[in-house]
Specification:
The protein has about 750 residues and is α/β, with parallel strands linked by helices. Helices cover about 45% and strands about 20% of the residues. The protein is flat and about 95 Å long.
C-alpha cells in the first residue's frame, strides 16, 4: 500500500495512538478487564503451586460438628470447651472468625469469658459493614465481657462480582482505633489501615491443615497436631453461610481466606505494581507498530509485548510481585483489531452462494431505521435443498429472488441462512397488499433440474423504530414465525408481546437482585382473635415494588419462583424479617404471633430447619410464636421425607397450619396424618357463608371437626362485618381479611397494635 493511500484513506497514526492510549487508561482506571485478569491470574497460579507452611490450622464448624453438637449457634459453654482444649494442646494463637457481638445465656457467656481469660491467647472478630441503602458504616465489636481479655482482629473483606476475595487489608480503623486483620495478626505483619495485599492462591489447598471442631472437642485431634500452631476457628457449613469463591479453589468459606492470607504474609510482603507497567509496555509496542508499519517489525513488537504481559507474571508472582496485564492487552487487542479491520472490512458482508448482501450487511445498514423491515422465511428451504442435486442451490435462490423482486426490481435483498430473506420497505406504502401479492406468486411451484418443488413462505413486518437493525430483524422473523403458526400470509410485529415476553424471561433473574437491593419487602396482614377482639398476630406476605414497573403481583413472582425451584431465598428473606418483627413486638410486652407461607419444595431442604432455628435464636423469638403455613395439597403430598420435615419443625416448637383448607382432598385420615396445630379455611368458602348454605355448612362443620381434634381454626378472606359476626357465632377462633385489616408495613402494624391496646385499656 502506498504512502499516499495510507494517508488518504486511513486515520492518522497519532490520532489512533491517542485514542488507543485513552481507551487503555480508561480500562485501567475503571477495572474493565477484571474478569479476564482474574482468569489469567488463576491460570498462572497453577504453574507455580507450592505448599503452605502448615503453621496455620483451620478448625471448622462443619456439618459433622452440627450433627454431633446440635444446631447453630452453639451455647457459649461449648465455645469455652473448645478454647480450653486448644489452650491445653499448646496452640500459639486462637483466632475466632465468629461473631460474639450479641449476648446469650448469661451463665454460658460467663463461662466463655472465663475460658478466654484462662487462655490469654484468644483473638475475637471485629468487623465493619457499609449499609447498602445509606452508605453508612457500622462497626461490630465483641461483648465487653469477652473482649476485655482477648485481642481483636478485623475479619471484614472486600469481594468482587464473583464473590471472590483477591486482596486482604493489613488493618482497619474500628471505633477510632487501629485493629490488625486476622492475616496480619497471625503473620506478625504490620500495615496501615486501608493498605491491602494480594492473597497467594498458588498455595496448595491440601497443604493447609484443617480439622473438624467435633474432632477437637471429642479429643480425636492430638496435641501434637496443634502445639505451637496458629488456630483459626470459623464456619465451614453451607447451611450457615459465610461462603466465598476462592480463586483456583472454588466455593469455600471465609475462614480459609484468612488462613491463606496469613500464609501469604508468612512468605514475605507482597508487592502490587498495579496496571501502569503493563500498559506502558503495550503502548510502546503499538507506537512501533503504528509508526513503522512494516509487517516484520509489527509482528516482533506485538510478540514481545504479548509474551511479556502473559509470561512474565508467572515468575514475578512466584516472588509475590503482582501487576495487572489486561489494560496492556486491551491496547494490543484494539490495535490488532483495527489493523485487521482495515484489511478485511470489505469482506464478510456477502453471501457466498448468491452474492447477495448477507444479514451482517443488513445489521450494518443504519439508513433503514425510518423504513419498515420485511423478513421472509422460506419454511421448507432446508428440506428442498436436501433433495436437490449438488450445486443446484443457486438456482433455487435465483427463483426466490426473482419472485421477491416482482414490482420492485431495484429492491436490495439481504439473504441469511436457512431460507431467510429481508429488505427495507417504505412504511407509507400499503405493505400488506404487496405481501399478499408476493405470497400468491409462491403458490406456483419452482422448477429446478426437472423437479417441481412447492415453496412455503411467510412474511413478518417490523414497521420501524429506534431499535438496532439486529433487534428489528429478530422481531420481523418472530412475526413471520407467528404468521406461519397462525395460518396467516404475513403479520406485523407486536411490541407489547415482545415486552411481555422479555419481562417474563428476566423476572426470575431480577428477583434475587431485587431482594438484595431492597425492592422486595414484607407486608403484614393482621389476625383477629374473635373471642377477645384483639389483634394477636399477622401473616407475613412478600411484596415487590419494581423501580420501573411498580408493584408486581405476588401471585406472579412467587408462583414463578416456586415453579423454577428458586423459592428458597425469597422464603428465607420473608422468614427472617417476619421473625425479627415478631421478636421486636413481643419485646414490647405484646403477645404476638407471625405466620409465613412455606413452599412444599422446602420440605425436602435439609438445611431449612438449621437456618430457621438460627434465625429464631439470632432474633430471640420463642418458636411457638411462629406459624408455618402449608397449602393443603402440599401437606397432603408430604409423605416420607416431607412428613419427617414437618415433624422436625413441630419438635422445634414451631406451629404448623394447613392453608387453603377445603380446596384439596380433605379426609379424616389426612387430618390425622398431618401434625398441624391449626386449620386455615380457604377464603372461597368464607366469602360465601352469608349467602350460600353449602359454604356455611362447610365452615361450620370444619370448625367443629377441628375443635374436636384440638386444633384452632383461622378463617381467611373475611371482607365484611356480617361475615365476622357469623364466624363468632360458629365459634371460629381467628379471622383474617380486609374486615380486620389490609396487608401493611411493620410501622403501620405497630401503630395499629398500640391503638388497639389503648382502646382495650380504655
Amino acid at each position: 500500500m502506498s504512502k499516499r493511500g495510507v494517508q488518504g484513506q486511513e486515520p492518522k497514526p497519532w490520532r489512533l495512538l491517542l485514542w488507543v492510549a485513552l481507551a487503555g487508561l480508561i480500562s485501567g482506571l475503571i477495572g474493565l478487564g477484571e474478569v479476564f485478569e482474574d482468569a489469567l491470574r488463576v491460570s498462572r497460579n497453577s504453574l507455580h503451586e507450592h505448599n503452605a507452611t502448615g503453621k496455620v490450622v483451620v478448625i471448622k464448624i462443619d456439618d459433622a460438628s452440627l450433627r454431633q453438637y446440635g444446631n447453630w449457634p452453639w451455647p457459649r459453654g461449648r465455645q469455652a470447651d473448645l478454647v480450653d482444649r486448644l489452650t491445653a494442646a499448646g496452640a500459639k494463637r486462637i483466632v475466632y472468625d465468629i461473631n460474639f457481638s450479641f449476648a446469650s445465656n448469661p451463665a454460658e457467656d460467663r463461662r466463655f469469658a472465663e475460658a478466654i481469660r484462662r487462655s490469654g491467647r484468644v483473638t475475637l472478630l471485629t468487623r465493619y459493614k457499609i449499609g447498602a441503602g445509606d452508605g453508612k458504616r457500622v462497626d461490630s465489636l465483641p461483648l465487653p465481657i469477652f473482649s476485655r481479655n482477648a485481642q481483636l482482629g478485623v475479619a471484614s473483606v472486600e469481594y468482587n462480582w464473583q464473590n471472590a476475595v483477591w486482596r486482604l487489608p493489613y488493618a482497619a480503623k474500628v471505633e477510632g482505633r487501629t485493629v490488625p486483620s486476622f492475616a496480619a495478626l497471625l503473620a506478625d505483619a504490620k500495615g496501615k489501615p486501608g493498605e491491602q495485599f494480594f492473597v497467594d492462591y498458588s498455595l496448595r489447598s491440601g497443604s493447609l491443615p484443617s480439622y473438624s471442631a467435633a474432632d477437637v472437642l471429642s479429643g480425636r485431634v492430638s496435641a501434637k497436631q496443634l502445639e505451637g500452631k496458629d488456630v483459626v476457628i470459623g464456619i465451614a457449613s453451607e447451611i450457615l453461610g459465610d461462603r466465598y469463591f476462592l480463586p483456583g479453589y472454588g466455593r469455600s468459606y471465609g475462614v480459609y481466606i484468612h488462613a491463606l492470607g496469613a500464609e501469604t504474609l508468612k512468605q514475605g510482603r507482597p508487592l502490587d505494581l498495579g496496571w501502569l507497567p503493563g500498559f506502558a509496555l503495550a503502548l510502546a509496542a503499538v507506537t512501533v507498530v503504528l509508526l513503522r508499519r512494516r509487517f516484520a517489525e509489527s509482528l516482533a513488537a506485538f510478540s514481545i509485548a504479548s509474551a511479556a504481559l502473559l509470561i512474565a507474571p508467572i515468575f514475578t508472582e512466584a516472588q509475590l510481585i503482582f501487576f495487572d496485564v489486561t489494560p496492556g492487552l486491551f491496547v494490543l487487542i484494539i490495535v490488532a483489531t483495527v489493523m485487521g479491520w482495515r484489511r478485511y472490512r470489505d469482506r464478510g458482508l456477502v453471501n457466498a452462494i448468491s452474492n447477495l448482501p448477507n444479514l451482517s450487511a443488513l445489521r450494518a445498514n443504519r439508513a433503514g431505521h425510518e423504513q419498515a423491515l420485511v423478513a421472509a422465511r422460506m419454511l421448507n428451504y432446508e428440506e428442498i435443498v436436501a433433495t436437490l442435486p449438488p450445486n443446484s442451490e443457486r438456482q433455487l435462490i435465483d427463483q426466490i429472488v426473482a419472485r421477491l423482486k416482482v414490482g420492485s426490481p431495484d429492491r436490495v435483498l439481504y439473504q441469511g441462512d436457512a431460507g431467510i430473506f429481508a429488505w427495507f420497505e417504505n412504511s407509507r406504502q400499503p405493505v400488506g397488499n404487496h405481501l399478499e401479492a408476493l405470497y400468491a406468486l409462491f403458490r406456483t411451484p419452482a422448477r429446478i433440474n426437472g423437479l417441481s418443488l412447492d415453496l412455503t413462505i411467510s412474511f413478518g413486518v417490523e414497521v420501524g423504530s429506534g431499535r438496532s437493525p439486529a433487534n428489528r430483524l429478530a422481531s420481523a422473523l418472530v412475526a413471520a414465525d407467528e404468521a406461519a403458526h397462525d395460518g396467516l400470509k404475513w403479520k406485523y410485529h407486536d411490541p407489547e408481546t415482545l415486552e411481555s415476553a422479555s419481562w417474563r424471561l428476566s423476572m426470575l433473574s431480577q428477583l434475587d437482585e431485587a431482594i438484595d437491593r431492597g425492592e422486595v419487602w414484607v407486608a403484614y396482614q393482621p389476625k383477629l382473635d374473635l373471642a377477645t377482639r384483639r389483634i394477636i398476630g399477622a401473616e407475613a406476605l412478600a411484596r415487590w415494588t419494581h423501580p420501573e414497573k411498580g408493584p408486581i403481583a405476588a401471585s406472579e413472582f412467587v408462583a414463578a419462583a416456586e415453579q423454577h425451584n428458586r423459592i428458597g431465598k425469597l422464603t428465607d428473606f420473608v422468614l427472617d424479617h417476619a421473625i425479627a418483627a415478631a421478636a421486636q413486638i413481643n419485646k414490647r410486652g405484646v403477645t404476638f404471633d407471625v405466620a409465613v407461607n412455606l413452599s412444599a419444595r422446602l420440605l425436602s431442604d435439609r438445611g431449612f430447619t438449621l437456618r430457621l432455628s438460627a434465625s429464631l435464636a439470632r432474633h430471640g423469638l420463642p418458636a411457638h410464636h411462629l406459624t408455618l403455613e402449608l397449602t393443603e395439597t402440599a401437606a397432603l403430598a408430604g409423605s416420607g421425607e416431607g412428613l419427617e420435615m414437618i415433624g422436625r419443625l413441630r419438635d422445634l416448637g414451631v406451629n404448623i397450619s394447613i392453608d387453603d383448607y377445603g380446596t384439596g382432598l380433605s379426609t379424616l385420615d389426612y387430618l390425622k396424618k398431618i401434625p398441624a396445630n391449626e386449620i386455615k379455611i380457604d377464603q372461597s368458602f368464607v366469602k360465601g357463608i352469608a349467602d350460600n348454605r353449602s359454604d356455611r355448612l362447610m365452615v361450620q362443620s370444619t370448625v367443629g371437626l377441628a375443635h374436636s381434634l384440638g386444633r384452632k381454626v383461622v378463617a381467611e378472606g373475611v371482607e365484611h362485618r356480617d361475615i365476622l359476626d357469623l364466624l363468632v357465632e360458629m365459634g371460629c377462633d381467628i379471622a383474617q381479611g380486609f374486615a380486620v385489616g389490609r396487608p401493611m408495613g411493620l410501622e403501620s402494624l405497630t401503630k395499629r397494635l398500640v391503638s388497639d391496646r389503648k382502646r382495650t385499656a380504655a
